[in-house]
Amino acid sequence: FSITEVPAMVVTKLCVKFGFSPNAVTWVGAALMMAALYFFWQGQYGIGLLCGWIMTFLDTVDGKLARVTFTSSSFGNILDHGIDLIHPHFWYLAWAIGLAAYGLPLSEALYDTVIWTIFGSYIAGRLVEGYFMRRFGFHIHVWRKFDSFFRLILARRNPNMIVLTLFWALGRPDIGLLLITAWHVVTLAVHIVQSIQAEIGH
Fold first, then answer.
1. pLDDT on residue 201
2. pLDDT < 70 regions, the chain
3. How many CA atoms lie within 13 A of 82 on its CB side?
4. Quick check: 91 and 52 in contact, CB under 8 A?
5. Residue 106, SS3?
6. Which of 134, 61, 45 is nearest to 97 (CA)?
């Protein structure tokens, strides 16, 4: 049970009442996603995080709305999942760029390391997940209790947003970015170990 479950249901009912389609909610979320990207790029992390968290909330609402109204579509599914798949790491890129405007720029070498690490470990992690699914016929996150738990805290958008929000509030958005970079590496390492363990026990 998520703390957003009740408010998401309230907003879902309002969308039904006023005739908003799931795709309309997704497009609003996409606009907020782009707004967050812009504000992060400018180092205006507070307003960017507000846009990002509202977008994250609407990402829950559009799925619920599609289910309760029986109006899911292939296009809506591709749009929703496509946005989810692509946008977080461009947020982190914009966050790194925005540190200069905020007054805490990364050195060129550290900036390059952060960006390559975040994008590289994310892509590699997705490839490991895909390999696991193809090799064993089920998702890596449903194998054991640990794997299901790790899914809740791995380096994906929502856990990373919590870290970024916390360290922005502490006045150190640079440290927040460095921590989620390190967490991407840890997540990839865990996925590799999971796959090795599965191979050994197969």
1. 86
2. 1-4, 72-73, 76, 80
3. 10
4. yes
5. coil
6. 45
